[in-house]
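Progress against Task 2.4 (sequence-to-structure conversion) is shown through the following example record, which the project officer requested during the mid-term review.
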Amino acid sequence: MSDNNLHNYPDRDGFFGEYGGQFIPEHLIKIMNDIRDSYFEIRRRKDFQEELEKLNKYYVGRPSPIYHAEKLSAKYGGAQIYLKREDLNHTGAHKINHCLGEALLAKFMGKKKVIAETGAGQHGVALATACALVGIKCEIHMGVIDIEKEHPNVVKMKVLGATVVPVTRGTQTLKDAVDSAFEVLLEDPENNFYAIGSVVGPHPFPMMVRDFQSIVGKEARVQFKEMTGGLPDYVLACVGGGSNAIGLFSGFLNDKEVKLIGVEPAGYGLHTEKHAATMTKGTKGMIHGFKCYLLQDEKGNPLPVHSVASGLDYPGVGPQHCMLKDIERAEYVSATDKECLDMFMELSRLEGIIPALESSHAIAYAVKLAATLPKDKKLLVNLSGRGDKDVDYVASVLGVK
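Structure tokens generated for the chain above:
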């Protein structure tokens, strides 16, 4: 790859190296290009930038702080662990960062309804919140398995005025929710806007969601230097589709001394079929209109996947992550359901912070890594969401009384 500046991607056709693009029918290409052109126009406008900056500061509560998890660091020894507290954002996760941008874009384009998929419900809640704020209808498609697991978020979406569409097909989880939402988009593309919830899908969504999420990395880079006098040695985040990870990674892409680590869901174990470790076990393929690493069968069909964290339960991954893997700029590892659940309880009881199950994957790997490193090394983990949505599920699984 000849371009050493990793901020210069994607190219004009939406490719990060060989990944990404628009592998969709001709009539869909026009829809996506209209979104692309409107996005390029709106992001150049001073009034849009000022409105988004104001909302991030006074509505979302940015910048989110960085917290030194001293008790966690002391227990596991070795390197010091710091947390970027995206869980403190309004709506409880990083998802609000791109949902505000997408809702404002939909309103700018004159759309009547915003449609989206959700797994853990964090994207759904954030988008329902953003749509309520800007005054546009919102429809969220969610697998029935996830509806049962993430009941508190379902109630929040309905309270915020969104219509929640239960998806009963296939695995009844995130991948099928995406399929269902796309079908509704096609029924009336002139009035409907599909707000993809991660750095996946056809161009321009991997770029656009990445851009909105890059605020996490920009903040973290400045904050960490002010707090410690330098940059972190390792930056870690969980990876499903990959939005929270690419958001944090964006602040450090060209700092070669900073190691980037994405943590995938190993589920019951990588030796089983019950996982969603796409970068670890997947091969190159197509899903939802873009090229990426994919968990697929011999015919190229996406395989059923599993994770205790509904937000990571996806067989594909963002194209920029695929490029970073190939050029060895980022490393992709995994954590099991058990490791995730153990760390959910550990962080809660050591630091008084209840993390989302998604984020617990990254913390689980971080403590293992920290134990192998000298005490002068520093790890920055994206605590991408809080675990309010997960407490009833975790209590039922672990028997917490």
